[in-house]
């Protein structure tokens, strides 16, 4: 524990970014992949009737969703679509500069 030491924000990380429309669609597809992989892996039994270990059943869908989001974001960037974007600033919306 580092009590009393303030955390210095990383200047490379932009916390104001949000998912764009293609990013939201990609996130929805990734969640669908997680569900689509999770259901069969929970129901899976081998020939002797044993189930897959619980840690693997949890890990496989998460990795599949992360892989889907990673590959999808690379493909979107190749096609010139941004996955995340900065929201419009409030100063521009109110007419102030």
Q: How would you summarize this macromolecular structure in one to three sentences?
A:
The chain has 97 residues and is mainly alpha-helical. It is built from three helices and two strands.
Description:
By secondary structure, the chain is mainly alpha-helical. Strands 1-2 form a two-stranded antiparallel sheet. The longest helix has 25 residues, at about 55-80. The chain has a domain at about 25-85. It is flat and about 60 Å long. The chain has helices spanning about 20-45, 55-80, 90-95; strands at about 20, 85. Helix 1 runs antiparallel to helix 2 (about 55-80).
| Structural class by secondary-structure content | mainly alpha
H-E string: EHHEH
Q: How many strands, what sense, and barrel or not for the largest sheet? A: 2 strands, antiparallel
Weakly predicted, low-confidence segments? none
> Within the largest sheet, what's the order of strands?
1-2
Cα gyration radius (Å)? 20 Å
- Taken from the alpha-carbon principal axes, the silhouette is flat
Number of strands: 2
Q: Could you tell me how far the N terminus lies from the C terminus, measured between alpha carbons in angstroms?
A: 42 Å
Figure out the total of helices: 3
Helix share of residues?
40-55%
| Beta-strand share of residues | under 5%
**Average pLDDT:** 82
């Amino acid at each position: 524990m580092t009590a009393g030491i303030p955390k210095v924000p990383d200047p490379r990380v932009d916390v104001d970014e949000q998912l764009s429309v293609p990013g939201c669609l990609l996130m929805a597809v990734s969640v669908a992949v997680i569900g689509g992989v999770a259901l069969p892996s929970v129901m899976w039994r081998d020939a002797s009737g044993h189930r897959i270990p619980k840690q693997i059943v949890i890990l496989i869908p998460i990795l599949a969703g992360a892989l889907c989001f990673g590959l999808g974001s690379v493909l979107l960037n190749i096609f010139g679509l941004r996955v995340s974007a900065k929201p419009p600033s409030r100063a521009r919306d109110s007419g102030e500069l």
